[in-house]
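In line with agreed milestones, the collection of sequences with tokenised folds has grown. A representative record is reproduced below.
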Amino acid sequence: MFTMKILLPGNLNLNYLQLGEGSPVVLIHGMGSDHTVWEGLIPLLKENYRVIAVDLRGHGLSSKTSGPYTIELFAKDICLFLDSLNIDQAHFMGHSMGGVVLQELAVRHPERFKSLTLISSFACIDTPLEEVLTNLKDILIEEGYKAFFDECLKVANSPEFIRKNRVLFSKIRDENSRICSVSSIVDTINACLDIKLCCDVNLADSIKEDTIKDIRIPTLVIAGDEDVFTPTHHGLKIHESIPNSRMEIIEGGCHNLLVEKPVEICSVIKQFLDDL
């Protein structure tokens, strides 16, 4: 799959993949990841949609700008990205932190959404999630990217999936270590740790009045019942906060649902989109 780059204001290059035709579906990855995390879903979605998977700033092959980063900054980048592609409205799907970015965007610019799908996502940092993120940051700083990658595998995937794909993961780790920016990932983790306010108040410090309870966009929340990174209560909290949202809990699903169970996830997503 060949990617393209688009230059945005501020000399920001965002790398992205675009396949298929039809109504646009924009995919946003999580912390420390990139567009390749969607490779299992993209072939299934591109049959009916124009699928666009973007690398956030500091990730993948996009610009590794200096920090600090914020969730609001990532959301603004997506707005500029959409403007550059002349996309007024789209279906949006976000994994983990990517879902937080899309919640921010949905609060600020609901007119840009046809629908919102959140996979293994969260809207606030509780103590267990803070501890996981802090541990990942410490490993990244003290032991380097490869040790960080290995620890991310453990908290995001099932042991069986890791065993079956050990060679592939080793290749991905080595490739990513050559292009990643440790400082950008640290800045991204810090952006996540700054999400201190829960769903029933503000999504981010910068939002003074609007909350995700004001979101009226058709929303699907997907969580795995074996996710130890963002356990199901995070998804349930979002579901309870966004009126008329739909919740699906995937049996045997870990944090990287879209990687381990792309066919099952795509079936749930397609049913949601077909019902709109």
